């Protein structure tokens, strides 16, 4: 759930921003606000993941497997090093 939401929040934010009518001058404020909200939500999710991460194991954590896509399977997981990179990229 956590990793899927880290991928979904920026996509939803870009869909919302791209659907705003860009011809008006006042839409710049809305665009920046939506982008900031999406970034803050992404940061909060990654901070929660960092807090919940268990450093005592060497296994993947927050594992999600999605087999319902017909062309390929999706496997998401975070290990000890990549939890820092997830936090760094948000």
UniProtKB/TrEMBL annotation:
<dbReference type="GO" id="GO:0015990">
    <property type="term" value="P:electron transport coupled proton transport"/>
</dbReference>
<protein>
    <submittedName>
        <fullName>NADH dehydrogenase subunit 4</fullName>
    </submittedName>
</protein>
<keyword id="KW-0472">Membrane</keyword>
<dbReference type="GO" id="GO:0042773">
    <property type="term" value="P:ATP synthesis coupled electron transport"/>
</dbReference>
<feature type="transmembrane region" description="Helical">
    <location>
        <begin position="34"/>
        <end position="53"/>
    </location>
</feature>
<keyword id="KW-1133">Transmembrane helix</keyword>
<dbReference type="InterPro" id="IPR003918">
    <property type="entry name" value="NADH_UbQ_OxRdtase"/>
</dbReference>
<dbReference type="GO" id="GO:0008137">
    <property type="term" value="F:NADH dehydrogenase (ubiquinone) activity"/>
</dbReference>
<dbReference type="GO" id="GO:0048039">
    <property type="term" value="F:ubiquinone binding"/>
</dbReference>
<dbReference type="GO" id="GO:0003954">
    <property type="term" value="F:NADH dehydrogenase activity"/>
</dbReference>
<keyword id="KW-0496">Mitochondrion</keyword>
<keyword id="KW-0812">Transmembrane</keyword>
């Amino acid at each position: 759930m956590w990793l899927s939401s880290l991928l979904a929040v920026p996509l939803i934010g870009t869909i919302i921003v791209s659907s705003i009518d860009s011809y008006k001058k006042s839409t710049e404020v809305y665009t920046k606000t939506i982008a900031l909200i999406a970034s803050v939500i992404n940061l909060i999710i990654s901070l929660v993941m960092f807090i919940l991460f268990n450093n005592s194991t060497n296994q993947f954590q927050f594992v999600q497997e999605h087999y319902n896509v017909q062309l390929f399977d999706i496997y998401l997981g975070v290990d000890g090093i990549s939890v820092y990179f997830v936090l760094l990229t948000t």
